[in-house]
TrEMBL record:
This is Gfo/Idh/MocA family oxidoreductase. Residues 3-121 form the Gfo/Idh/MocA-like oxidoreductase N-terminal domain. InterPro entries: Gfo/Idh/MocA-like_OxRdtase_N (IPR000683), Gfo/Idh/MocA_Oxidoreductase (IPR052515), GFO_IDH_MocA-like_dom (IPR055170), NAD(P)-bd_dom_sf (IPR036291). Pfam families: GFO_IDH_MocA (PF01408), GFO_IDH_MocA_C3 (PF22725). It comes from the Bacteria.
């Protein structure tokens, strides 16, 4: 029986908790919040869970085989340090932080402890990504075009640059991750960001609400990724298109469209990728076999490196080279 703890009491903690309690031979035993009240409130929804307002007390209270870290980007650091020091494996939600310095430090500590980790890049677990990779075999990727557009998430930390890191680090990170997963590593980025709409609608907005990022890939391919959070609620799109010698691969979260000469095929995948992500992590905890985990901390670090480089480029107006980690 695996005993799991969850850190954070927001939307995404619930999503993971709901999946964990439906899983055989798993008990959700501990929930950590920023207050006892918030922790107790979430814990009360699950039969074996107890709420805590102190990480140390939670970890001292009983064995945890792993912890799910579901806190906002600015809250990373002490949590992971304590888990690493105690040798407790963890699944951490993306992004790894608001900058690169902290993730670099944590990645080194994780590597030296050889700790099992998984990072919440759930789209990698979709069957459409397996299909995309299969379609790419023998093809040359010429170019990629991706986007993340929508309204501004209404959690207070998201609109502050030091809270979320901004949209490219917080949301578009998923598209950067899929670009790396399908088309390979990024070597250079150049970004232009601006504040157009959202700061006129809401108080205290310090994140840009539009961004356009050009990326050069190690393969020689080029990519263009855009994002905006300036759209009205409920409007937007998310996706990645690859232009290859074999045709066009047009991916959106529930569908892949494959177009070639005299060929058009739609692949629909509505399976829950969070369930597959959790299965892979739990399998690694039970067996030590980490091969089903599609993004661990060391891998996610490279995505963070690209999204943070884009922020630096937008600030300086200069292209930023990505050093191979
Ligand atoms: N992979 C995905 O599809 C996906 C989807 C949604 C959110 N997320 C990620 O999950 C993370 C959390 O998002 P959310 O929507 O649940 O946000 P949220 O604001 O709803 O919840 C965050 C929770 O973390 C708690 N918290 C903050 N600092 C803490 C600390 N030091 N210790 C304990 N608790 C702390 C807050 O009190 C809050 O309950 C974000 O990084 C977000 O990007 C991922």
């Amino acid at each position: 029986m695996l005993q799991i703890g969850i850190i954070g009491t927001g939307w995404f903690s619930r999503t993971h908790a709901d999946l964990l309690v439906q899983t055989q031979d798993v008990r959700l035993t501990a929930v950590l919040g920023t207050s006892q009240e918030k922790a107790d409130q979430l814990a009360s929804a699950y039969p074996d869970a107890r709420g805590y307002d102190s990480l140390r007390r939670m970890l001292d209270a009983g064995r945890l085989d792993a912890v799910y870290v579901c806190v906002p980007p600015m809250s990373h650091g002490d949590i992971e340090r304590e888990l690493i020091q105690r040798g407790i494996p963890f699944l951490v939600e993306k992004p790894l932080g608001v900058d690169l310095e902290l993730p670099l430090e944590l990645a080194e500590a994780i590597r030296s402890r050889n700790l099992i980790t998984s990072v919440g890049y759930h789209f990698r677990y979709k069957a459409t990504l397996d299909r995309m990779k299969a379609e790419l075999e023998g093809q040359t990727i010429a170019m990629a075009v991706g986007e993340w557009s929508g309204g501004m998430p209404q959690v207070s930390w998201w609109r502050r640059q030091e809270g979320s890191g901004g949209q490219f680090i917080e949301q578009t990170t998923h598209i950067v991750d899929l670009l790396r997963y399908t088309a390979g590593e990024v070597e250079e980025v150049y970004a232009a960001y601006a504040n157009r709409v959202v700061h006129t609608q809401f108080e205290g907005v310090t994140v840009p609400d539009v961004g356009s990022v050009t990326l050069k890939l190690a393969s020689g391919a080029v990519a263009s990724l855009t994002n905006t959070c300036a759209l009205p609620s409920g409007v937007g799109r998310t996706g990645l298109r690859l232009y290859t010698s074999g045709g066009l691969l047009d991916w959106t979260p529930d569908r892949l469209e494959v177009t070639g000469t005299n060929r058009l095929e739609q692949v629909v995948d509505e399976a829950n990728p969070y369930a597959a992500e959790t299965d892979a992590f739990l399998h690694a905890l039970r067996t030590g076999d980490t091969s089903r985990i599609r993004s661990d901390y060391a891998d996610a670090l490279r995505t963070q490196q690209v999204t943070y480089a884009a922020l630096q480029s937008a600030a300086s107006g200069q292209p930023v080279k990505i050093e191979r980690l």
